[in-house]
Write a structure and sequence with these properties.
Keywords: Membrane, Transmembrane, Transmembrane helix. It comes from Cryomyces minteri. Pfam families: COPI_assoc. The chain is mainly alpha-helical. It has one domain. It contains 6 helices and no strands. Helix 1 packs antiparallel against helix 2, helix 1 runs parallel beside helix 4 and helix 4 runs antiparallel to helix 5. The radius of gyration is 15 Å and the shape is globular.
């Protein structure tokens, strides 16, 4: 549920990049953040094999946490809707980074399924 909420805030933050002024930088950042938000939401339902191979950082708490912090820092802006969405995404990212160092917390099933580890590909 948390990842779906983060995906929604990413998409809203991406849409917020278009307001109040539209510039080429805002459009590019907004489109990327919307794509990342949609991809994050998709990972909760289906994990494409390419994601497990090329974006394996999304299957660990620390990797996903740093990714959320990065996206949150991109979304934060001068308007309240950008600041709110970016802050929520960033705080959840910090929470994921903290969870990496708590051994009693197990990753969710969708983070374990594709986590075969480095070098586990069949030859």
């Amino acid at each position: 549920m948390v990842n779906l909420a983060v995906a929604v805030f990413m998409v809203l933050g991406g849409i917020g990049q278009f307001f109040p002024s539209i510039g080429i930088q805002n459009v590019i950042v907004g489109v990327y953040v919307i794509i990342f938000g949609l991809a994050t939401g998709m990972l909760e339902f289906r994990i494409p094999p390419q994601v497990a191979k090329y974006a394996s950082f999304m299957f660990s708490f620390i990797g996903r946490g740093v990714f959320y912090i990065f996206i949150g820092s991109i979304v934060v802006g001068t308007n309240w809707w950008k600041s709110t969405a970016g802050t929520i995404v960033g705080i959840i990212g910090i929470g994921y980074c903290v969870l990496e160092y708590i051994p009693s917390i197990e990753p969710p099933a969708n983070m374990r399924d594709a986590d075969a580890g480095w070098g586990a590909e069949q030859v």
